[in-house]
Hints:
Blueprint: E1 7-12, H1 17-26, E2 32-36, E3 50-52, H2 63-69, E4 75-78, H3 84-94, E5 97-101, H4 112-119, E6 123-127, H5 130-138, E7 146-148, H6 163-170, E8 177-180, H7 191-205, E9 208-213, H8 219-228, E10 235-239, H9 244-250, E11 253-256, H10 265-272, E12 277-280, H11 283-288, E13 296-298, H12 303-314, H13 317-334, H14 337-352
Parallel strand pairs: 1-2, 1-4, 2-3, 4-5, 5-6, 6-7, 8-9, 8-11, 9-10, 11-12, 12-13
Amino acid sequence: MPAMTEVLHVIDRHVSYDMLDQLEQLAWPDDRIVSVGRPRRYPGFGRSAGEIHAPMGLALLAGRRLAKLAEGKSVIHVWSTGALPAAMSVANNIGLRIVLSLPCAGAAPRTRQIINWAGQGRIALTVPTAPAADRLIQAGFKASAVHVIPPPAPIPSDFHARREPARQASGLAGFPCLLAATSEMVRDAGHKYASWAHAIAQHMHGRFGLIFPGDGPHESHVRFFAATTGFDDAVRFTGWRMERLDVMAAADIALFFATKDTGVSALAAAMACGLPIAGAATPDICWLAPHEKAAILVSPGVPRLATVAVLRLFENETLRRDLGQAARARAAELCDPDKCRAMLKDIHNRLGNG
């Protein structure tokens, strides 16, 4: 019988919220989590993460400290490419295997060394969708080294009970239809187009509020653009004053108008809540929430089409209900945390005992 695989999980201060969402759901209770440098603050992440000092801010120089924590482990699971140099240093010195999880194919390091290690069976990659896996394989990664683990998204049991308190807390309870863009505010995640679609819809009907929860490196850009639309009085940036689940409970339609794939954990969470979804037809979004089967999707980067998707859902209650139910069923099928955790455990075991 193969030995039980011991895993050390590694993050850094640049790790995406998508990856923290997945780590929260997929790590086993006794797994150790450490951060190269100060851990990133994210209220949605409830695990304890120790800090490894990175001299001069360089992850590579943290490798010696990481090696001590990796003693007795079989696999180092890296959740941020910024922490990868430290993990590779340890793997070179003591022969451990690495799992690298990515929020999307565009986040993959394209160095020849990583591709070679994948070909040698020294590193495995996980991505949330089949199109992302295909892109990595086309980029030169060995197919056997690339694995699809959909973003885990538990079905909330108290979702409907949260709705009215959450709407009041949002400050937008007077609007009949609340829109929510719940992805992390990163470049290309589409928050500008969510604001644009909201402004056009509000100009036409005057019945829409828009909520941006959380934060992200592009928050200032999102705030600036929302302030230029003329309808910023119907927009709320709730930061971390509201949990993302409460924001989704308050919302009637979830918006995911990314111009490029940046991660789909927030989308999976919205699907698990049964929210009607209007989004952009990027490869990852199309795979997770197919057009007219689990969402209304339009070409990325076109405000008019984004507005059409919002209005189509707003004006058709039956469509909202049917797509919301279909999205929830698809999330239950693809994004069940127990199934996703079992998939990851299998990868750890095969790599650690290989």
